[in-house]
Amino acid sequence: MSLTTAIPFCVALPLIIAAVLALASQWIGRRVCDTLAIGAAACNVLLALVILRGVWSHPLIYWFGNWWPRPGGVALGICFNVDAVGAALAVLTATLTLAGLIYSWKIFEDTENHFQPLMLIFMAAMCGFSYTGDLFNLFVFFELMSVSAFALCGLKTLEPAPLQGAFNFAIVNTVGAFMIVMGIGLLYARTGALNFAQVGRSLGRTPADALVLLAFLLIAVGYMTKAAIVPFHFWLADAHAVAPSPVCVLFSGVMVELGLYAVARIYWTIFSGTLAAHEGQLREILLILATLCAVVGGLMCYAEHHLKRLLAFSTISHAGLMLAGIGLLTPKALGGFLIYVLSHGTIKGGLFLGAGILLHRHQKIGEDHLHGCGRGMWWTAALFAIGAFGLAGILPFGTLLGESMISEAAKSLQQSWIAYAFVFAEVFTAGAVLRATFRIFFGWGEPAPTDKSSRVEEKPETEETRQRTPAAMFLPTAALILLGIAIGAVPQLRGTAEGAAGVFVDSSHYAQMVLDNAAPAPPRKAPEEPLTSSIVRSSVAGALALALALGSVFRKKLAPALNFTRSLELGNSALRAAHSGHPGDYVAWQSLGMAAIGGLFAWLLH
Amino acid sequence: MLNYLAYAVAAWVFLWGLYGIVTSKNLVHQVVCLAILQTSTYVLLLAIGFKIGGTAPIFADIPVGTPVVDPLVQALMLTDVVVEATVAALLLSMVVKANEVAGTVDPEELRILMG
Amino acid sequence: MSSRQRTTLFLIAVAGLAPLFAWGFRNLPPMGDYRGPYGYAVTQVAVYERHATDVVNAINYDYRGFDTLGEEFILFASILGVLLLFRPSGDDHKGKKQAQVEDALPVSDTLRVGMQAMAGTMVIFGLYIAAHGQLTPGGGFQGGVILATVPLVVYLSGDVKTFEAIVSNPLTKLAECGGAGGYAIIGALAMLGGAHFLTNFLPLGKTGDLFSSGTIAVISVTVGVEVTGGFLVLMRSYLREIIEERLQGEE
User: Fold this and answer.
1) Within an 8 Å CB–CB cutoff, is residue B82 touching chain A?
2) The domain spanning residue B29 has which CATH number?
3) Which of A265, A305, B18, C51 lies 20 to 30 angstroms, CA to CA, from A491?
């Protein structure tokens, strides 16, 4: 299968199959529909792998409708700019969707066969999002991704909580989408083009004026809303608490990360020239935002006792770390971001599926409610513990490699304090998962305090016998967590990632490739530095996480000096009150965040 | 100044739409405010594509080369309008279901997930 | 947060956002002074390259046809989502619904006759708009919406049985899914000849003819079919329980 056939089919094939499945939904049985959907997802994994292998060493530009750009560099058609970064994200998308669809084999909820086509459309949208090279096409796939996500989130209609979660998700994300459209409009007014390369070349290196800055602000805020960066993050916990587990896998595993990918892509192809003079200040702003995100996410993660909300806040915290990877604005950090996304996505996906297994076996999802219920589920407990250490980024996980690259890049820019943000996030998120593991699977200590939300959604997703975990649920969970380890074992991964990132950030060469049909430059493989300082840092983080978890669990038996762990678990009341469940609050915070970041832009970058 | 009136209208409608969503006491009202928010993007796009003295970009009865307004923003808007209708339908279906299951359409009362 | 705190927070945000917008929009080219290359480039070449007189639709279904495929699937996914959310559940809260459906008011003769007379004209008008997408303003999306309101007009005239017969016909679902999948398949068919996805591979005909501009006309009709089917399916899900009540009441 040639690359030029594989690339459009990676997006078109799941769409066609979804249409066929929707048409036949009344007449084919549930199992037939499931099998066809799993087959389609598996085909997509193969296509995405073929594409990744094809663009490993040089990107490929694919013009739809044979509309190659005109002389003078005017692009009338839409292009896909397939490079290693986008192709890797598409492989991640397809793999997570496949795992989710296999897992959902056991979910009994009767969706009249509409769930499977929506999952396929979701996957196709995310694949298209990773490949595209056009501003409005990016937005169209963003909307397609969002709409499928809203519908999948509100799937369980017999309870009011899923409807609240899906509605909050929809309102906040759609407001973000409209900001993106405004930003695109402003860029179009200035440059008269929608293609990344053409807009970037048109903006060139002229220093950014107010219009360009406002466009960047609007587009970045819109995509950061999808990426759940504080203060645009409030929707994520509500959506994750109520979405079915396979859908949560996709949300936390790849959808959130794609928002960050979009910010990086748009910055490097369009704004890196005009904002070049202000790179240092922009870096500061993004790093501050990233740290805030990591801290708030970590604190709220530790304060949650609904397993899925806990994992959702850990995603927010790690999204902050990934924003740091982008915000450092260097190829090395970007390469670290890529590796971090790949390994975090699989590990987080495995943890969500594990939470789903607990929901299946015991019809409960609150840490307090599940206390001691997991005794005997040794394999699931092992997966949870391994996943927790994966979040802490210790050897041999891929997250260690990602963190090391980001920290090295930070050190070379005199921003080495970002490593402390990593440690903070790792301690709190891994500590929270370990704490939950100890309480649920070993029954240690006393039951956890009850949250307002920890009882939500305690209805089983599955109907069958609850004495064993079905293979269809356990195997994808184990496979995903093992993939997180396997990514760390790929030889020369850091060098390759940095090389791919080097191609990603080279905007002038990108413009030549797209508009002038120039040949792609071969990526240079960067030298890899030793991992020792990262291993030390992450081992300290892992040990601290373990200590924190044990301290929380055994607080009463051990010294009263550990009482601070209780206040950590109960959380800051002001912070919790901010997560009020009211969509108006969320949009108010979104507006305030945009005003604040806009103010910083206006002051520092102008 | 008048040249920029359309842009000011777009910003004005955008901010009022946001205000409506923030202060709303009814979920249906919030969805309608979201639709109003979207119309501000239409106003902005169409104002950007306008050309004084230009006519519609339909060459059925005028020769090619007559000044016309920009067709691209119209193309973008066209599909957006129909998409907005169906996305609003999806959101309203959530509201209908919420009313059926929880008995309320007030976001203050429908706050089961929080903290 | 209380309602007052929320409003205050938002007003603080507006105090920052409004000046930001003003500061940024100041640098936009004044309205009426469109400068960008895209509009000029495409209006010069579209008629010659694609024999289509409606440049907006040429952009929609040809130059940027891939975007429209995505938009069409957004429509499809939203409708699938509504079907998913409105799927009949176990007990269906029948008690609540029955209390809400009142007896339908008797429909006046003027309304009934007028609506049924309009229905025929609207069908023809909708088909005309959808079929002439490449020539005049209109096309699939617009024609599809016009066609989709015809059964609604029939419903408003009081004829619930015919409305139910139209929207629950399997052809409606076929129209919706076939339209969506059909667009993607047309794009894939272009690849059989070795071209890229969504290349215009049908003969272009003479400018101004009904059968001109190749796949633009075909895609326009496909989109029209999908939009019609989609909106009918949508209306059915929303009105399903009320129609069942009304039909039971009539028996």
Assistant:
1) no
2) 1.10.287
3) A265
